[in-house]
Specification:
8 helices, 15-stranded parallel beta sheet, 27-stranded parallel beta sheet, 38% strand
Length: 859
């Protein structure tokens, strides 16, 4: 027997996008069905046999999935519930779970072997198959079960039985998963005592998706290859598998006939026990992802599908039309549309398309919101909703907190939401949690989060001051209002695309937020979104146009392109208000990693107080790594610092690059005075701060303009308030740029706590002009622990000089206890700085070999 080293994750977001099959609800439509919780797990009897049943509280949707979980040999349903922890998972993922008990009847004449609690997957006409059908019928007769999403999984002997169920009851069960099982047609490969007995052949009534998982050290490992081969033959899998390895194991996924899939997975360093801890969490999520991607295909339609849809064909995708205030309930066709989102949610299946037809503006929007199923498309018909002057629009809202948590659209994974007018909403406009992939495009969202529910929270941090030991702790972080578009990811891989949305006019809501935590791996693209007139609620402390966050061990790679943020904050007259408003915001905590590349961004009018920013990058705690770039972008009219790279965490690494950026016109009128209290938040064009011991912070500026700010053009500072040690490295590198016309200084370097390596390099840059001093160097660290290399020309860092350093009044450089090289620069005259041009107190500046004229293209 071959060993299968499988190589594809069972998180099917990318592999299974083609899945679109759906099926009608059967007993979900029964008159007496309900979703009342069992308040724990109860036992139900069916004649001489029994099963355990767990129905969670607060189930969502008109009908929910059902999972039938089968225990191993010599075990019970109660033990299976304890080890697999499916009940806790069901509570979090809104489905019903049953744990049938295998027979212990010694008089059963059809079993080839018998002892307490053993399933019989091998004999012709096994009595366990009709029993499991009866379990499903019993639950369907009492609860609203989605007949297209009834699944079976098993462990050990129960795993073999789950495959037998797939063979004999494919019309009832949508898909099957087995862990530590084997081929149900050959006893010797089952992992049970070997023998010569051959079981009943496997001849399902249709192709059915099957997943097989085994531990690398499990005795069933050797049978995985033959087991997978059985199902590849049954499902006619003709394509080579897609494969991928992850930290817990490796998988192979085969795409097969009828839209089915066969998965073979090997779990690392695991024997025959059900995995525990994080590995158990991963296994449950993978199995559930597999099930969610493989519903029962349709055999008949309860309602008439839309014109042009495939009718009753396995793997087909159906289209449902909905219109606000339709005259009759309708069948879901374009001519007879449904008239509520609830109806569309009830009848649609994973992979279906739901089309919202435009309605006149005098007609109320479709209310109550909608919870999408996996791989659905929700789209507004007609011309782009972003056009002006339209008299009819596809509009939806949700002001009811009891439906979908108050969100207008709740995502499930693999969904697309496009060309809709969304709002008002009690909470979010579009929200998803642990989704594999999403596309959100060309929507108009407004008046979201009327409840002022907290969403994005800036992770707890300590705000440094210039007074040793006097940092201000924000132990609860800073809360923000729930975003109009928000996605939370805590596990698995996800790809998000958010493009061309218009987000505007909200009284207590962020615009677009992506929050990652746990072990999530997320790639996000946000392009050509316009966000304007977003306000901070009275119960919140910040408002973000676009926010990105990583905590725990999460990894987020984000690319933002051609977005626009204007009038973010709360001022009604001028640009100065009370909001902590941000155009772009990146925040990390824990050993997470955030990489964010922004290009062609436009920001104007941050209507906030001293901490209003065009773009703030901040590490909070826990030693994260942040790599952020801003390119070909403009930031104008901000009250506080226009750009901030603020590294507050111990052991953190932050790299920030600005290329072809204009950061201009800060307006904090009290900035110069406030500068004496706190480093930053005082109206700098670009503020770089290292405030965490053993941290590394670098800023690179090329081909950029920093001008018109009320305090400094570029301020570089260190301030570790708790005395836990020096900053490891703080550096800045400026080339081919213009930092001019700023009120206090164009460049300020101020280290109030020790820095092991303080490196600064500037060349081919205009530092001249403005009412202030071009360069201020302040070594305020009294410990002597700072080792600085400041090279503005001819120094140890290889600067070519050619900077312009002059002003209307002297001094040109103020130096307190620092040493710097400024050779080969232009001082406004060929003889170098004039008398009083450099004022050094305890430091020195080498201004040798001055240029004889202004460097070409610099000043």
């Amino acid at each position: 027997m071959k060993h299968v080293h499988a190589v594809a994750a069972v998180a099917f977001a990318a592999t299974l996008l083609s899945l679109a099959g759906s099926a009608p609800q059967a007993s979900a439509a029964a008159a007496a069905c309900a979703l009342s919780p069992t308040n724990g797990t109860i036992t139900r009897t069916l004649g001489p046999r029994s099963y355990l049943l767990h129905v969670p509280a607060d189930l969502k949707g008109a009908a929910v999935p059902l999972l039938v979980s089968l225990h191993g040999a010599g075990s019970t349903g109660s033990q299976d519930e304890y080890f697999t922890r499916w009940s806790q998972f069901a509570d979090a993922h809104s489905f019903i779970v049953a744990y049938p008990n295998a027979t212990s009847d010694p008089e059963n004449p059809t079993a080839p072997y018998l002892h307490t609690g053993v399933w019989n997957p091998y004999t012709v006409g096994s009595p366990d198959v009709p029993f499991l059908r009866q379990v499903v019928r019993d639950i369907q007769s009492r609860y609203c079960v989605d007949a297209s999403r009834v699944y079976v999984d098993g462990w050990s002997n129960g795993a073999v039985m789950s495959e037998r169920v797939a063979c004999d009851a494919a019309g009832v069960f949508a898909a099957a998963d087995s862990y530590g099982g084997g081929d149900p047609t050959v006893w010797a490969n089952s992992g049970l005592p070997a023998g010569s007995y051959s079981g009943e052949p496997c001849k399902p009534s249709r192709p059915i998706s099957a997943s097989m998982i085994t531990g690398q050290e499990d005795f069933t490992y050797g049978g995985l290859a033959e087991d997978a081969s059985l199902w590849r033959g049954i499902d006619r899998c003709s394509q080579p598998p897609s494969g991928e390895s992850d930290s817990y194991g490796s998988s192979s996924t085969y795409s097969c006939s009828g839209g089915t899939h066969v998965v073979a997975r090997v779990v690392n360093n695991t024997s025959h026990n059900w995995p525990t801890g994080a590995q158990g969490d991963d296994q449950r999520q993978r199995i559930w992802n597999f099930f969610a991607a493989n519903p029962l295909p349709p055999e008949r339609n309860v309602l008439v599908p839309a014109t042009g849809s495939a009718r009753g064909r396995t793997g087909s995708r159906r289209t449902w039309y909905v219109r606000a205030a339709a005259r009759h309930p309708g069948s879901g066709s374009r001519r007879a549309p449904l008239r509520s989102l609830a109806a569309a949610q009830r009848v649609s299946r994973p992979g279906d398309k739901i089309v919202i037809l435009p309605s006149a503006l005098r007609v109320p929007p479709l209310g109550g919101g909608i919870v999408l199923k996996p791989h659905q498309t929700l789209v507004g018909a007609g011309p782009s909703v972003l056009r002006h002057g339209l008299r009819a629009l596809p509009r939806i809202e949700n002001t009811d907190r009891s439906r979908g948590s108050g969100d207008a659209v709740e995502l499930s994974g693999g969904d697309t939401v496009e060309n809709l007018v969304i709002g008002p909403a009690y909470r979010g406009g579009i929200y998803g949690s642990n989704v594999a992939s999403e596309t959100i495009a060309r929507n108009d969202l407004s008046a979201t989060n009327s409840s002022c529910t907290t969403g994005f929270v800036v992770q707890p941090f300590t705000l440094p001051s210039l007074v040793p030991g006097a940092g201000v702790p924000f132990s609860s972080g800073l809360p923000n209002g729930w975003a109009a578009i928000m996605v939370d990811e805590s596990r698995g891989h996800a790809r998000l695309r958010i493009a061309r949305n218009f987000v505007h006019d909200a009284g207590c809501a962020d615009g677009i937020d992506i929050r990652t935590s746990g072990t999530a791996r997320v790639t996000a693209v946000a392009r050509r979104n316009v966000l304007t007139r977003l306000h901070e609620g009275a119960s919140q402390q910040s408002v973000l146009a676009i926010g990105m966050q990583t905590v725990g061990h999460a990894v987020l790679n984000a690319r933002l392109s051609r977005n626009t943020e204007t009038y973010i904050g709360n001022a009604t007259l001028g640009d100065e208000g009370f909001a902590d408003s941000e155009g772009l915001f990146a925040n990390s905590a824990g050993p997470s990693r955030l990489t964010e590349h922004v290009e062609h961004n436009t920001f104007a009018h941050g209507l906030g107080h001293l901490s209003a920013n065009c773009f703030e990058v901040v590490s909070s705690s826990g030693g994260p790594t942040m790599n952020v770039s801003l390119a070909h972008s403009t930031c104008d009219h901000v009250v506080g610092d226009v750009l901030e790279a603020v590294n507050l965490s111990k052991n953190a690494t932050m790299n920030f690059t600005a290329e072809h950026v204009r950061a201009a016109d800060s307006e904090f009128v009290a900035g110069p005075a406030f500068h004496q209290v706190e480093p930053g938040d005082d109206g700098d064009c670009l503020f770089e701060l290292a405030a965490g011991a053993a941290s590394t912070t670098t800023v690179k500026v090329t081909h950029s303009v920093l001008t018109g700010c009320v305090t400094d053009g570029l301020e570089v500072a260190s301030s570790v308030d708790d005395g836990t040690g020096p900053v490891n490295r703080l550096s800045f590198d400026v080339r081919d740029s213009s930092i001019t016309g700023n009120r206090l200084s164009n460049l300020r370097v101020a280290n109030s706590s020790p820095v092991t390596e303080l490196d600064g390099r500037i060349e081919h840059t205009d530092l001249a002009g403005g009412p202030g001093t071009p360069i201020i160097l302040e070594d305020i660290d009294r410990t002597g622990g700072t080792h600085a290399r400041l090279d503005f020309g001819g120094g140890p860092l290889g600067s070519a000089g050619a900077n312009c350093i002059d002003a209307a009044n002297v001094p040109y450089i103020e130096d307190v206890r620092d040493s710097a090289s400024a050779r080969g620069d232009w001082w406004g005259q060929s003889t170098g700085p004039p008398p009083g041009g450099i004022v050094a107190t305890g430091g020195s500046v080498d201004s040798g070999q001055p240029l004889s004229g202004p460097p070409a293209g610099v000043c």
